[in-house]
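Service request form, structural biology core

Requester: graduate student, group of Dr. S.
Request type: structure prediction, single chain
Budget code: on file
Notes: please return the result as structure tokens.

Sequence provided:
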Amino acid sequence: MKPIILHGHERPITQIKYNREGDLLFSSAKDPKPNVWYSVNGERLGTLEGHSGAVWTIDVNWQTTRVMTGAADTTLRIWDCETGVTIGIVPASSSVRTCGFSYSANMAVYSTDTQLKQQCEIAVIDVRNADESIVEANPILRIPIPTSKVTSILWGALDETLISGHEDGEICLWDIRNGKKITSVSDHTGAINDMQFNKEGTMFVTASKDNTAKLFDSESLMCLKVYKTERPVNSAAISPILDHVVLGGGQDAMDVTTTSTRVGKFDAKFFHLVFEEEFGRIKGHFGPINSLAFHPDGKSYSSGGEDGYVRVHTLDPSYYDFCFDY
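Core staff response, request fulfilled:
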């Protein structure tokens, strides 16, 4: 299994995303130029130029017609996926930390950081007819978050709810019609770095600084499974075809220079979804893994690291043959 190594960023990767068909891979990093790649051979399709700060988050809609990026230059940009032209720019009060298209792609959500004397807030905007005029348009919904800032966000079922993960480990479920909190749980003790759904959207996995990843039910927020590691977990993804979860992380970036890659534990770990047991590791990065994504066909996965590389791993036949005895 020889990975395809994509090098188009000068700074650490912040997020990677596949489109629905899985033929394109989108990557954002702490440099101002998000990239688009062909996932099959690693050829770079192009870059999205326009931001002037670190790009924290990237998302692509269901039809792969539009891409959305949020950056430290306090803007959210919507791009035409085919041409790479900016369709609209949404100004924010502080850094845009997370963003996501709804399933219908009629709406989009983004959240901002607590900085510049501004408090964190979640905003939902209408992107059906996004163009230059979106600058003046007011969000449909604003939810101020006075407590702990939002570090990860997902759309709930039927675009009726939002699930937010916070820096203090809390997970909240919001009703989008009135902006009220439906329920919240605090199963994590550290910041939540990443949240990703399974294929059906019935469960999601969280990755946290408290050295665990946990599986939650999407509607009740009940904690179903816990995957323990010995390092902070930065990202976790659920396989679309098998009962497997892949976890990526490593110690904090500032401590990396003092350890070798072997001690730093920068490998991606595979856990069984149900039995919570680790059964495989894949090495490669020279630093913590910041983002993971499974290909929609489940036959490969990608990882983006602090070293600025995106690695596309195609899984060997032996991976599918492996099964637990029970």
